Amino acid sequence: MSNVAPDLTLSSALPSEAAPAALSSDEISPVAPERVADEAIDPAFLSRSSRRAISPRPLPFEAVRTLFEAARWAPSAGNVQPWLFIYAADRPTRTRAHRLLKEQNRRWAERAPLLVFVFARRNHPETGLPLRTAAFDTGAAWFALALQAQQLGLVTRAMGGVHHEQTYAALGVPESEFESMVAIAIGYPGDPLDLPPDLAAKELPTPRKRQHHFVFNGRYIEREPTPAETF
Asked: Pairing between strand 114-121 and 83-88?
């Protein structure tokens, strides 16, 4: 038997009772000046962005558990909690998981120390009826995870570019019970210069539409509403 320890990406250096290690304030990217809220909101909503530049630096196992604990407490219709997370952290598991990503995502996501595949339950576990809110609820769980990652000094990026039809057999998930949603790459912030040039050029926080494009008072208006028609 070999005495060489397995190459695990998840670090076990912290004791189980230790708090997850977060980056110091000078290591966390500041709020980009391009992102300015119209109302007073928590800065976490502005500083969170979907980054491709992710460091291969190992994650403490306690941090990984904390991410899923945050997702656990997301709201869901009827408290069904329809989400399912399958994660890949050690190198052999991640190598297999990389094959499930489409090429445009493998180009950058292979550096991430943690990959998570997200599924949503198709039918209500008691009635068997289609669970219409499953994707909505699973999205809430993903955002809870993303915000918790932000608090830990981590970055996340969700990807729809997945070979969804292959995920079921590869990850042991029954296709009749769950629908493949996305994959998520998670890790400490990396250097954009480590990305291919075309991707490095995109590594900027994206803007958002103003509220009047998607918020309506009383009734949807197909044309762009005036501020008075919005609030």
From this structure: antiparallel
pLDDT grade, residue 229 (50/70/90)?
Answer: low
CA distances from 181 to 73, 146, 148, 170, 202 (A): 19, 16, 20, 15, 24
Q: Six-digit token pair at 33?
A: 């000046």
Question: What CATH class is the domain 46-196?
Answer: alpha beta
- Compute the distance between CA of residue 129 and CA of residue 144 in angstroms, rounded to an integer: 26
Q: How confident is the model at residue 99 (pLDDT cuts 50, 70, 90)?
A: very high
The chain-wide mean pLDDT, for the chain, equals 86
Q: Which amino acid would we find at residue 225?
A: P
Partner residues linked to 179 by β-bridges: 120
Predicted structure pTM score: 0.83
